[in-house]
Amino acid sequence: MSSFLPNVVQLGWGGDNGWGTSIIQTIYMTVWPAIIGGLIGLIFGIALVVTEPGGILENKVLYSICDKIVSVFRAIPFIILLAFIAPVTQAIVGTQIGTTAALVPLSIGFFAFYARQVQVALKSVDQGKIEAAQAIGSTNKDIIFDVYLRESRSELIRVSTVSLISLVSLTAMAGAIGAGGLGNTAISYGYDRFNNDVTLVATLLVLLFVLIIQVIGDLLAKKLNHQDR
Amino acid sequence: MAKPIIDLANINVTFKQGKEVVHAVKDVSLSIEKGDIYGIVGYSGAGKSTLVRTINLLQKPTDGSVTIDGESFFKDHQQQLSNKELQEKRRNIGMIFQHFNLLNETTVIENVLFALKHSKLDDDAQEKKALELLELVGLKDKADFYPVQLSGGEQQRVSIARALANDPEILISDEATSALDPQNTNQILDLLKQINDKLDLTVVLITHEMDAVKRVANKIAVMEHGQIIERGPLQKVFLQPQQELTRQFVGGSLAAVDTLRAFNLDHLADDEELFQLVYNGNNVTKSIIIALYKELGVEASMLYGNIEILGGEPVGTLFVVVKGDDKQRQAAVKFLEDNKVTVTKIDERRIWNE
Predict the structure, then answer these.
(1) What's the CATH class of domain B251-350?
(2) What is the pTM of this model?
(3) Rounded to whole angstroms, how far apart are CA atoms A134 and A128?
(4) Of B91, B146, B148, the CB nearest to A136
(5) ipTM of this complex > 0.95?
(6) Domain coordinates of chain B in residue numbers?
């Protein structure tokens, strides 16, 4: 092992630069933004669909505000966003560098991406089902939870999978503000030091991580789908 | 006249499509009485759906008033109910659609229970009610299936059960049989008729298929370009259509005119008149033509004959030329009318010389 992948072994398991530490940092930077950014993204996605023209709670002003916020954050390249919102990060978590500091830009980057994905998933629900629910006398809350979210749940799982995978690639950039993680290992300890074996192993670990997300996502999406024969 | 359960007055609906304004419904008034099965026919784009959607305010009229069961829903450009009240009132108006619009991620019984979500019944009673409704539509054994596992006809039955969940007084059917094959169409229509009898439900049936209306409706309105161009009891509109479009829809009448034209009679003799005779199925067994000759010595030659089943009853139509002097012809008409035959003199110029 040490003769094939000398630098990989040298980095070790624990310690500041160890593989275990990097893996945990990547998981940490994926899970928290997925929860925080995911919730906010879900709320924005729902808001976009219900307030759009012709939506069940049509509201031009609110729609326009939500739409602009999502568009702006989607448009800023993540590596720039990291630096750009540093003061906000400072205000929220008390520091501009480190793994925890990365949670703020990651959540924001993820929220904007996810909101659009949720919007598309919810829009896939046939308008006729919404109309049928209205004709039954359903409340708007019923329509959001029992029609929009429930009917699109398989689609929501699919877009969540895509979004999570894109979040994993965002975590790789978080090394730029000292957040660590597998992406940082690949660049700082692999590429920058000509340790190609380290880059290779870090890449394989990220791939494995993505693969696990994809497989679980596909399984869930299939299990929760009763629409296609 | 009984008080109408649905009263639409001077309804206008306009949409903006880009810069163009589309006038989908133009000053339409429509009263529907309790227990009616009111058919509204017309080609797609005639404004049928838009008009009917104003009943439960899925479509808000641009102008006009909507009164349901004596209660004002909409007038003076204003919804007269709060949104919460409207939600409650909508539970009194069931609706079924061309594409069923069932929730596909829930089972058949859950679809019905979804409509009962705001019912005052407790959970057990709701479940019992849902099963009763599924039994009514003949799907009790498929309660735990998902909609995609059912045929189109079965899915429409589920949507009927859902629409009836809150014991509505009105059921709106928006092209509900248009996506079904003829056999399923007839089964669904018969089910609607059965529910109409059993639950004293008022049914509004929108369709472009005249056969559907013929089978179950008792009254009909024909729409074109956002207006009702003809309306009345089924038999009257069906057998004596006034408008060209109505004649197209009621194929029987068109066939009659085509047949008559094929005779290529330029004009009738002075002692001849063309009549349309319409008679109820109960008289079908008696031969009126022979009776005419025997009783009055009047010759009637038959040019066209047909029997239609309208609202479950056989109705015969004959086009006959009656030959005789003025007195004889008048006596013939009286004789026919005494025998409960509806006699309409047809202006032959309309058929041969237009």
Answers:
(1) alpha beta
(2) 0.85
(3) 10
(4) B91
(5) no
(6) 4-233, 251-350
